[in-house]
Task: structure prediction
Amino acid sequence: MKTKQKTVRISIIGFGYVGNGVAEVIRRKREAIASKYGIDLKVVGIADLKGVIADEQGLSEEAIQALKAGNNPGDMTGLELIRDIEHDVMVETTPTNVETGEPGLTHIITALDSGRHVVTSNKGPIARDYRMLMDLAAKRGRELKFEASVGGAMPIISLVQDNLAGNGVTSIKGILNGTCNYILTRMADENLPYEHVLKEAQEIGIAETDPTKDVEGVDTAVKLVILANSVFGMNATYKDVTVKGITEITLDALKLADDAGYVIKLIGDVDSDGRLEVAPRLVPKDDPLNVCGTLNVATIKTDLAGEITVIGKGAGPIEAASAVLSDIIGLYS
Result:
């Protein structure tokens, strides 16, 4: 018997790399998702700095391309799109602001108040106001999902909450920043100094023009806060994390570690006792946490299943969009 189709209308707020990736994976996977899950995904609105477009019947590819080119700005604001255009899920992919959570925080609150489910890749609002946002979602009878905010394509939150349901999780530790992992990998493998590898990473787009949040451990710390609150039920903030980055790692330190059978990695570590730490750590070469390049990895320690390690791409528009897509499907399956 043929599955009855349910139309799920989506808005995308923030149309940078991840927002574009979300639109692309929906276009690419729409028929397969409809066939497998009985869900017909329609993007009905997109808001970007270049403008806002909306069509409750579903945006055409031509309209999306025109927005990208800045040729169809419209006269609607992003908040008006969230409030006034009838849709089911708001996807929030604006840049992270750890200090204020804005503009993503206002977008998420507006969407929940307007009766929309929310799926986001934005770390800022979740790390800053997790408890308030989850309480608001519960009050409005809506879901707030944020798998893409921690491991990109690598599932951690859904793995713990769904596949490891019933387990007591005692700790999560791993590499949660691909930029730092790339830099340390290149330094160790090629005997190249930090400044040289950082410049290389910036030139090929792995590191930001201002890499401070990555290399000083801020990005990893924010992700730990999200894990602390969503997995361990804490009410942590960034200020609760002990943070040390990779800027002081020398070639001599890497060589000494190598000679002793170790590598140095930037490890984020959170446990059920409330410890939140980000720091360079010695990792045995045969440890599952020893992954190279831009890969992320996390080892989840549980009371029943033992240690589960997941490895994957933590960044990239399509990779992050895959986590967003999984969250959307999870709302309706």
The mean pLDDT is 95. The radius of gyration is 20 Å. Residues 17-37 form the longest helix (21 residues). Residues 6-153+317-332 form a domain with the Rossmann fold fold (CATH 3.40.50.720).
